[in-house]
Amino acid sequence: MPGRLLQLLLMALACWSWRVEARSAVADDTRAVDAPRVGVVLVGEFGADPEIAAVIGEWLGRSGLAPEVTRAPRLELADLRSPGPAGVPVRLWLVRGDERHARVYLAEPRAGRYLVRNVPMPPGLDEVGRERIALVVLSSALAFLEGGATSSLDEVTRSLGPPAPPISARDGAAPEPPKPSPTHPAPPTGLGARRTTDLGVGFFYAITNQTPAGLATGPGLRTELLRTRDRYRAGAYLELDYQIPHRAYTERLVIELRSFALGTGLAGGIALGKHLAWQVALGGGLEIVDAAPTARDGSVAWVEADRTSLPFLRFAVGPVWRWSTALMALTTRVDVEPVGLRYELSSGSARQTELEMPRVRPGVALTFGGSRSVFARRATASEAAPVPGGTRSDGGASNPVTIRSP
To answer: pLDDT per residue over 290-347, tens digit each?
Structure first.
């Protein structure tokens, strides 16, 4: 019966997730109307990769920006210095540099502001590589929009290769030879320019193996408060479990068991993709067990439990899928009860253990719920670590930046 119930839940999940994905797409389009518009140009081989366009659009859209993705065969200095379409003051180009690097350019020609950053690339652009590029694109865009990072036009020109006749040549001055670009470690913020605190609430249904007492099933409520930075999430959770009455059979008794449990602990996770994350939790709590024994014959006088409440530890791990504000999780968990629980049969002066509950109880839980940001903030330029290669406020310029993966 529990297995059949889990199959029905999984079938319902497939239909539900399709509807949530569709609603999420409509909501994202609605929010994009009032969001700052950023032109994103994928140059060369990046323009032929539809997946990287989707990943970059997803990251920018979730951070309050409205990306407009286009493609171009090449990038020239004139493109950077030409104003973009009306309503798109800032444009961003993603270009392949060498075998191991991509390059991100940002330009706001009307304000005379530019930025160039290098992004390490692994051989062969897989899902992880696309996510890494999208993170640097997002952090660069946020820092540039807030005025916290810029590069001089000379640095941008040198990064594009041998320039066309430079402006200084018209005055008879020989062009200055390109200087080697030193490599600097990036500040360990990644997406740290945007930090959120999310409150999540979900309802779950759990199945727990309590052999020899059989399978226990029941619903529960979970709430969590998680802090998000980069791809990582960490925080705390609170859970309330109820196990519906089920029967345990012994040689002389039929014992009907039900329980309530309240648990809390720490939770953390890491994003693996646009919608998928991996989450772990470690905590503990208190379980209250109610037993109603029934004798199989008239020889039984009394059944006693050595306790009715007992502490437990819980470890849980599993994938979490998120669509906009909706979420679903499939969790494998293990409960450990250090003190154990047993039921004794008393007949006259004789006492005999009739049922001893297991101390280690594996199980699985399927959760449906939602999460909402209760606090979100983008770091200002003064709070962020200074970006090597940016233009200083006093007008001095340094060398181009190379961003290393953390």
So the answer is: 888 887 775 554 566 656 788 999 999 999 998 888 999 999 999 998 887 877 776 6
Q: Which helix (H) or strand (E) holds 314?
A: strand 309-323
Fold type of domain 36-189+379-402: Rossmann fold (3.40.50)
For the record, the structure tokens of 27 come out as 């909501």
What b/e readout covers 118-141, taking b as 16+ CB neighbours within 10 angstroms?
A: bbbbeeebeeebbbbbbbbbbbbb
Tell me the CATH architecture of domain 194-378: Beta Barrel (2.40)
Q: Are 322 and 233 in contact (CB under 8 A)?
A: no
Residue type present at position 92: L
Task: List Cα–Cα distances, 211 to 3, 208, 253, 261, in angstroms.
Answer: 16, 9, 16, 19
**What is the residue whose two structure tokens read 């409520």?**
221
Q: In what order do the strands lie in the sheet with 341-347?
A: 302-305, 341-347, 350-357
What does the pLDDT look like over 231-245, one tens digit per residue?
Answer: 898 999 999 999 999
Q: What single letter denotes the amino acid at residue 353?
A: T
Q: Closest Cα partner for 403 from 193, 154, 190? A: 190
Domain boundaries, the chain: 36-189+379-402, 194-378
